[in-house]
Amino acid sequence: MNIREKYEQFELVHLSENASKAILSKGRKEEEQKCEIRTDFQRDRDRILHSKAFRRLKHKTQVFLSPEGDHYRTRLTHTLEVSQISRTIARGLNLNEDLTEAIALGHDLGHTPFGHTGEKILNKLYPNGFKHNEQSLRVVDLLETRNDKQGLNLTYEVRDGILNHPSGYDASTLEGQVVGISDKIAYINHDIDDAVRGNIINEIPGKFLEGIGSSHGKRINNMIMDVIRNSENKNEIIMSDEIAELTAELRDFLFENVYYNKVAKSEEDKTMFIVEKIYEFYTKNFESLPDFYLKVYDNNSFGREEIIKDYIAGMTDRYAMKIFQELYIPKPWLKI
Q: Which of 112, 110, 115, 107 is nearest to 63 (CA)?
C-alpha cells in the first residue's frame, strides 16, 4: 500500500460521514494513472496552484482599481484568505481540507481585469453574458494547458465547487458549500478593512460591531465559529439566523458605501472604456489575437466573440492597459 492509498483509507476512517473522500470521487473526464503520493484532490490543488491563471491573480483588482498602497487586497490575496477560512471551517467540521482548498484556490480564476467592473462590461459586450464562476470553470477545463492538452482534467467535485461557489448556486459537496460561505466571509471583512484604510468609510454601524465583532479578526473568527456550530452533523453549511441576517445587512452596507462609492469607483468609467475598446478592436481584427487563442478557435467550435471574451477575461489590469496603449495610443515617430 503506497502513501496515497494509506491516506485514502485514513479519510474513510477519520473524516465525517458527510465529507467527500478522494477514493469515492466521481473522477475525471479523462482517466489518469494515480499518483503514488497524492490523492486526486491534492493533485487538483497542485495543478491549480501551478497554473498561469493562478499567478495572474496577483495583478487583478479585488475592489480598488490600481491602489498605490502595498496593503490593499488583490484577487490573489482574496483567494488565499478564502482558502484559509475554508480550511479552518473544513477542519472544524472534519470535512476534506484538500478538496476545500482546491476549490478555494480555483474559484476566482475566471475573474476579469478591473474586478467586478470588468465583469460588468464583459457581461454587456459578450452576447451570451459573462459570469466569473462559469469562466473559472472554463479556465480549468479548457484555457489552461497541461502536457500540451487543453484543460487541467480536474475531478468532478473540484469543478462542481468552482462553478457553484457564488450565492444562488448549490454545490453538490459540503466542501463546495464551505468555499461559498467562506468567500462571503472573506470579501465582506477584507473589503471593510481596505475601505477603512482608503478613507472610503470611517467606521461601520455599531450593531455590526456588537453583533459580529469589534475588529477585523474578531468578526472573521465569530463568523467562522458560527458556521461550525450551526453546520456540525448537518448535511448543509449554514450560519445562525442572527449572524446570517447581520452578514446580509453588512454586505448591503458595503454595496451602498463602498462598492458604489464615487471615490472608490472614480476610475471605473475609464476601465470600462478600456475593456470596451479592446473588445471592439479584436471583433474587427480577430486574426490579431495571440496564437494561443487562435489555436483554441481553430481546434474547437466556439464563436469568435467567445474567444475574444476569453482573452480579455484572462488579462491582468496592467496587461489590459498595456494592450490598450499598444492598440490606441500613437507611438513617437523616429527618423533614422
A: 115
Domains of the chain with CATH codes:
41-259 (1.10.3210.10), 268-328 (no CATH)
Residue of 55, 62, 26, 61 lying closest to 41 (CA atoms): 26
Q: Which pTM was predicted?
A: 0.95
Per residue in 249-287, pLDDT (tens digit) is 999 998 888 877 766 666 788 999 999 999 999 999 999
Residue linked to cell 477542519: 91
Quick: pLDDT tens for 157-177.
999 999 999 999 999 999 999
Closest CA to 15 of 161, 23, 3: 23
For residues 125 and 119, the answer to whether their CB atoms sit within 8 Å is no
What is the rounded (10 degree) CA torsion for 122, 126, 128, 134?
-40
CB atoms within 10 A of CB 210: 10
Q: What is the 3-state secondary structure (H, E, C) of the chain?
A: CCHHHHHHHHHHHHCCCCCCCHHHCCCECCCCCCCCCCCHHHHHHHHHHCCHHHHHHHHCECCCCCCCCCCCCEHHHHHHHHHHHHHHHHHHCCCCHHHHHHHHHHCCCCCCCCHHHHHHHHHHHCCCCCCHHHHHHHHHHHHCEECCEECCCCEHHHHHHHHCCCCCCCCCCHHHHHHHHHHHHHHHHHHHHHHHHCCCCCCCCHHHHHHCCCCHHHHHHHHHHHHHHHHCCCCCCCCCHHHHHHHHHHHHHHHHHHHCCCCCCCCHHHHHHHHHHHHHHHHHCHHHCCHHHHHHHHHCCCCHHHHHHHHHHCCCHHHHHHHHHHHHCCCCCCCC
| Strand 145-146, strand 149-150: pairing | antiparallel
